[in-house]
Amino acid sequence: MMHPGHVVALGYRYPGPSSLEVLRDSVGALPRSAVRKAMDDFVDSVAGLELGKWEELHTRTLDLSPMFVPYVGHVTWGENYRRGEFMAELKRDMEGIGVDLGGELPDHIEPILRYLAATPIPLADLIEVLESAVSEMKSTLATADKRSPYRHLLAATLAVVQDLKPVAIGVRQTLGGKQ
Q1: Is residue 37 part of a domain?
Q2: Which member of 49, 63, 107, 163 has the lowest number of beta carbons within 10 Å of its beta carbon?
Q3: Distance CA 43, CA 11 (A)
């Protein structure tokens, strides 16, 4: 079974001819949960779009002049040195466990979700800021386009983060707050 973070990450990829089927199959393999419900809603929302319309929506929502900024570090710190330190630390950890950035910066939500799916102990700095960053992304999108299918994807992302947080905090406490 695929980790929920990996399944949600698939929704952030640029859509292609088989994207809907891959998403539908991957979501269908998830157990019943808040992540599964939000991903079902996302798949249902994009299923009614022609591929070209979905591509336009993806680009309009996440790329050129995005409706929300999909970069955790940027949402948290803006363009200052702290974001750079965060990205360097995240990139090192991602490379150490074999997470491919897929052409994105390390603080982009898609590789972060794949990272969360691949590591048993996420970086403490990431866990500390991730929930508030995703909540802000979700709020920004709701203001820009309250009917966007991507609101469901952000809800799924938030559910992954909320499911992860108690585990990560427990692991950090076990390790004495150090990683």
Answers
A1: yes
A2: 63
A3: 9
If one counts the domains in the chain, the total is: 1
Contact status, residue 5 vs residue 117, Cβ threshold 8 Å: yes
Contacts 24+ apart (CB under 8 A), 13-17: 13/102, 13/110, 14/55, 14/58, 14/59, 15/46, 15/51, 15/54, 15/55, 15/58, 16/51, 17/51
Residues 47-87 have pLDDT tens digits of: 999 999 999 999 999 987 789 999 999 999 999 999 999 99
Q: Encode pLDDT of 23-42 as tens digits.
A: 999 999 999 999 999 999 99
Look at residue 1 and tell me whether its pLDDT is greater than 90. no
Domain that holds residue 142: 4-174
Q: Is the alpha carbon torsion for 54, 154, 110, 159 positive or negative?
A: negative
27 close to 156: Cβ distance less than 8 angstroms: no
Helix axes 4-12, 109-118, angle to 10 degrees: 160
Q: Taking a C-beta distance cutoff of 8 angstroms, is the pair 128, 155 a contact?
A: no
Q: What are phi and psi of 24, to 5 degrees?
A: -60, -45
Helix (H) or strand (E) holding 151: helix 150-174
Is residue 179 domain-resident?
no
